[in-house]
Design goal:
The protein is 36% helix and 16% strand. It contains eight helices and six strands, in the order βαααβαααβαβββα. The protein has a six-stranded mixed sheet, with helices on both faces.
Length: 220
């Protein structure tokens, strides 16, 4: 297969924030992501816009913002968003309302759909390249990444913006919560051409089923 390149990776998680040194320590198992509902403040957005956003959406908006600020990527570049759980806390609230009251509030539903995080990011920054969203079967990040990079490998796109995010699964899920219950978001540029400080992938042998392990590999 053709090689592809990953560059300009930005990440955010509770306890690590935007601190590059802490992220390097985390990649080497010397720091931990906190399993809490903390979110980036998004002070560069309108207060009314960010007021009702969830943890996953705020993290997504933030890593996309940082990517745009630290790269020269074209704002019309297509985006691929990957998540294993999506707006899981809002989805629980919606389901709870259906069971207990038999109703769904339109305002709540509009922010519970799977594409809410990335659509919010495109609205915040006026991105017009379009986006795709991927929910990988059996939580396999490898399959999602293969789908995401397919346009680049096929030559239909020179590059794409790759975004991953998952929020903390609430305690109400009990023993149904995943073992890897880590709130985290990251973004990067996938391209067919080599760039400065990029990571080359000749195949998918170094891509873990876990997005957390994949990011650790990338940051090392």
């Amino acid at each position: 297969m053709k090689s592809f390149y990953l560059s300009n990776v930005t990440a955010w998680a509770p306890g690590l924030g935007d601190d590059g040194k802490l992220w390097q320590a985390w990649a080497n198992n010397q720091a931990q992501i906190e399993q809490i509902k903390e979110s980036p403040k998004l002070e560069y957005t309108d207060p009314l816009f960010r007021r009702r956003l969830s943890q996953i959406t705020k993290m997504t908006v933030h890593v996309v913002h940082n990517l745009l600020e630290t790269s020269h990527v074209n704002p019309e570049t297509k985006i691929v968003f990957i998540s294993l759980r999506g707006e899981i806390e809002r989805e629980f609230t919606i389901n709870k309302g259906l069971i207990e009251d038999g109703t769904i509030l339109p305002a709540g539903f509009s922010l519970s759909v799977f594409n809410t995080p990335i659509s919010s990011a495109t609205l915040a920054f006026g991105l017009k390249g379009g986006y795709s969203v991927i929910y990988p079967s059996k939580n396999n990040f490898v399959d999602a990444l293969k789908t995401a990079v397919a346009p680049v490998l096929a030559g239909t796109e020179k590059e794409i913006i790759l975004v991953y995010a998952d929020e903390l699964v609430p305690e109400v899920y009990g023993d149904k919560r995943p073992a890897e219950n880590i709130p985290l978001a990251f973004a990067g540029i996938i391209s067919a051409e080599k760039k400065d400080n990029c990571l080359c992938f000749d195949d998918f042998s170094n891509v873990s089923k876990s997005p957390v392990e994949f990011l650790q590999y990338v940051l090392k």
